[in-house]
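Sequence only, no structure available. Ideas?
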Amino acid sequence: MTGKECGASDTARIDALLPQTQCTRCGYPGCRPYAAAIASGEAQINQCPPGGAATIHALADLLGRDFMALNPANGIETAACVAWIDEARCIGCARCLPPCPVDAIVGASKYLHTVIADRCTGCELCLAPCPVDCIEMRPAPASWTNQPELNRARHDARTHRLERRAEERRREIAALKAAAMTAAGTAAS
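Reply:
I predicted one. Tokens follow.
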């Protein structure tokens, strides 16, 4: 299957093979955009470090392509890890919450944060925003298993929630502007 022969259903089939960590190491903002880029021929099949060789083999089989080694520019394949927050060092800044693509971190501003290990995809996106470096990646617990379908559902739910909030905020701002314009028009008369 070449990029020109791929369509939306092919993107979904490719996306179904990805680990759904939403880590962005592939160079795309998530697994679905990476799948679309593979389907269109824009991206190679070897850009997913969390999926590693197993995912590259599955993609090669699906698409009728040759296996390619993981592109080192995208990272290296490692054992599964999850984020861990050192609660003694956490200052409750909440900067780790927005980048988490599956809402695996719980806490609020000025309160202690923690990671729900069973939900963590190991994406590492929470590391960079932490101003006190209290987050580290640790080997996933023995009971941990990657759950791509559940990760996708959590990511989609988070995305939809953020879109709803943004739309609500746009409506609030529009209403405030309209009220200000009405008040300004009334004051001018």
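Strands lie at 81-85, 105-106, 114-115, 135-139.
Hope that gets you unstuck.
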